[in-house]
Amino acid sequence: MLLALPVLLGAAAPSSTPAPSPANVHASHAWMRYLLPNLPAAGYMTLTNTGDLTTKLVKANSPACGSLMLHESKNDGGTAIMMMVKSISIPAHGQARFQEGGYHLMCMQPKMKPGDKISMILTFADGDDLLLLVPVYGPAGPPAP
Asked: Which is nearest to 32 in space by CA: 104, 117, 136, 120?
């Protein structure tokens, strides 16, 4: 089960160009993979943008993580590499998938265990936030549908 609530922080400033709102971005199939206390946990989900403008996810935060970073895994000439990224674009009327071998959230110093539900805040380039309540699973991930 996933709970997503738009959280608008800060004052709204007038603009000649409409900015995408978190009301246009929805998260689905969100979950965290927890391995061991001394290993990072990983977060996966699909972000869907129903708005008319591309938006960017620029930050993630959770009290269940010492730090929560945007990461991408890639295959570089046969070698798997993982790197932190500054932002992840979500195209207008499109999706960004966070999955193994691609974009994911990297939780350092995890304070969670399988069966927990953790809160996290996703922050977008316009400063708006999306609050999520995300289930935690073990190494095998969520049960098959």
From this structure: 136
* Distance, CA of 18 to CA of 52 (rounded, Å): 10
Name the DSSP class of 143: P
Which of 90-128 are b and which e, b meaning 16 or more Cβ less than 10 Å from the residue's Cβ? beeeeebebeeeebbbbbeebebeeeebbebbbbbebeb
In sequence order, the 6+-apart residues with CB closer than 8 A to the CB of 26 are 4, 47, 48, 50
pTM for the model: 0.82
Whether residue 44 has pLDDT greater than 90: yes
pLDDT computed for residue 76 by the predictor: 82
Domain made up of 3-8+24-123: CATH architecture: Sandwich (2.60)
Strands 103-108, 41-49: pairing kind? antiparallel
Can you tell me the distance from the alpha carbon of 5 to that of 89, in angstroms, rounded to the nearest whole number? 20
* Residue ranges covered by each domain of the chain: 3-8+24-123
pLDDT digit string, tens, across residues 98-138: 999 999 999 999 999 999 999 999 999 988 899 999 999 99
